[in-house]
Amino acid sequence: MRAYVAATAAIAHTLWTRMRARLSEQPSDAGYTTETVIITALLVLMAITVIAILSSKVVNLAKGINLNP
């Protein structure tokens, strides 16, 4: 039974050490996140601009409708 516990502890320690090594090697995603936020903001700004242009055109077309016979 002691051999089983010792082997399990050794495996757990090895896995823990490998996991910590992998986590410390991962590159930072800070630049990617900032880039994503900027691109998303630009896309939202472009979408708002398109909506404003289309809505003004629709309003102008609606004003041109003659409802009197």
Integer-rounded radius of gyration: 31 Å
The share of residues in extended strands comes to under 5%
Q: In sequence order, what are the helices and strands, one letter per element?
A: HH
- Main beta sheet strand tally, sense and closure: none
Could you say which overall geometry the principal axes of the C-alpha atoms support?
Answer: rod-shaped
Measured as a percent range, the helix fraction is over 70%
Distance between the termini: 99 Å
Number of strands: 0
How many structural domains in the coordinates?
1
Low-confidence stretches: none
- The assigned structural class equals mainly alpha
- Average pLDDT, rounded to a whole number, is 85
Number of helices: 2
Structural commentary:
This protein has about 70 residues and is mainly alpha-helical. It has one domain (about 1-65). Helices cover about 85% and strands about 0% of the residues. The protein contains 2 helices and no strands. It has helices at about 1-25, 30-65. The longest helix has about 35 residues, at about 30-65. The radius of gyration is 31 Å and the shape is rod-shaped. The model has no long low-confidence stretch (mean pLDDT about 85).
Describe this protein with a few key phrases.
69 residues, mainly alpha, 2 helices, 84% helix, rod-shaped
Spell out the blueprint of helices and strands.
Layout: H1 2-25, H2 30-63
Produce a short descriptive summary:
The protein is mainly alpha-helical and 69 residues long. It has two helices and no strands. It has one domain (2-63).
